[in-house]
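Sequence in, structure out. Go.
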Amino acid sequence: MHNDRTHDAMRRRLLQVMAALPVAAVGLLTLFPSKARAQGSPRMTTVASMASSAGAYQTERVSFQSAGVPLVGVLFTPTAAKSPMPGIVILGPFGFVKEQSPMEYATRLARDGFASLIFDPRFSGESGGEPRRYESPAAKIADVKAAISFLAARSDIRKDGVFALGICQGSSEMIAAVSEDARIKALATVSGQYIYRENLEGFFGGGGPTLDARIARGRAAKAKYEASGEVEYTPVVSPDDKSVGLPWPEIYNWYHPWTTSKWGEPSRWENRYMTMSDAEVWTFDVGDFAAKLRLPTLMIHGERSDGFVAAVQHVFDKVPAKNKKLIIVDGVFHTRFYDDPLVIEPAAAEVAQWFKSILQSERG
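Output:
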């Protein structure tokens, strides 16, 4: 991996400010910090209220159960859409919380007419589950299925119009979750981290523990936890430590601001995950699930997203769906699909158009 093409510093700062608006849209942050308000200043509003009054979308804090554990999410609904409306369940990257890349896509897809559900998976963010920060594909797959059930049960959501979107590692877990789920009309993945051995060997080939060493340390940590209840943690990212979960400086550069007050204080994202997660995450294989995927499937991938073109092509070729489409975006690095409006805007528009085309083909 290498740094993406250099951007002008002022331009990047402007884009970061633009990108921050959807992140705060749940109304957890006011437009200005309370400590900055002066006596006699105008009455403050929230970003969520601004979005609603502007006719963009409305937000609803929601909760539902997965395996008896409460999950917390936010549902973005288009203000102009008639009920029932189509819905989308969104799943994010390794170690994510809902306020990160899922919210970037939810706000845009809501403006395009889709009720978009984001949520914290078990063990992370505002959702329940112990021990904290356990990364489990099996648990996330079950959480997605619970989210689909929650969305499909709502009277304002079309029963024949529920879709799925996976981002980064969420692409692999979403493929597994919906590969044989008749409730889902179509799938889209964006900048996927496609988990299979050959791709992971390359991902962990830049120094530090090898793939097999990571799996071994995960199994050792799991054995310790099962024997004593002691939890071991590993950082998700670091600027120079190759033993972390995602050992690339470019990925650290994206995640590090989430450890600060940049996105609101305190951030719900934690730069740690349970070490025993390595035993489950890095032995997962998306290929078996992709081979069962007959849903209409769109895959959007940067030329320099994880695994480069080879990884997404490998998975795309396994998908037996007759209606499938692969889009490769020239020169774009993986994490630009997380927060760069110049990348997210057209990607989200492609996803919306893909889902709309499925609905229109059924009506036609």
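Check: Confidence is low (pLDDT under 50) at residues 1-38. The domain at 9-363 is CATH 3.40.50.1820 (Rossmann fold).
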